[in-house]
Design goal:
Layout: E1 20-21, H1 24-33, E2 50-51, H2 59-66, H3 77-89, H4 96-104
Parallel strand pairs: 1-2
Helix pairs in contact: 2-3
């Protein structure tokens, strides 16, 4: 259920982008202790957290994204390949559908 406060993707504090994270270290902290990086729980404003893949993604983020496809770790060849693909693409605005396609196409 969307909150009446969440009326725009880029709206400060409540918009979708307020809970989207892509930098490697930042995303890693979010996974371990979100209260250190997020001002409120995204659910309080009818939103959800998004950990995005980009050229800034670290191996931990990629391993977490790949969990639903099998057992991977930071040294997996698929993880190394995906890091290289992301660095080549350098597309910071890759949407969720494009990210899923990229993961499946490994």
């Amino acid at each position: 259920m969307k909150s009446k406060y969440n009326s725009g993707k880029r709206q400060p504090y409540v918009g979708e982008a307020a809970f989207s994270h892509k930098a490697g270290q930042h995303a890693d902290v979010i996974e371990k202790a979100s209260e250190l990086m997020e001002h409120i729980d995204s659910k309080m404003v009818g939103n959800t957290r998004h950990i995005l893949l980009s050229e800034l993604s670290g191996k931990s983020t990629i391993v977490n994204k790949l969990k639903k496809y099998g057992d991977f770790d930071k040294s997996s060849p698929e993880v190394k390949k995906l890091i290289n693909v992301l660095k080549e693409k350098k597309n910071p605005d890759m949407n969720m559908k494009q990210q899923k396609h990229l993961l499946i196409s490994l």
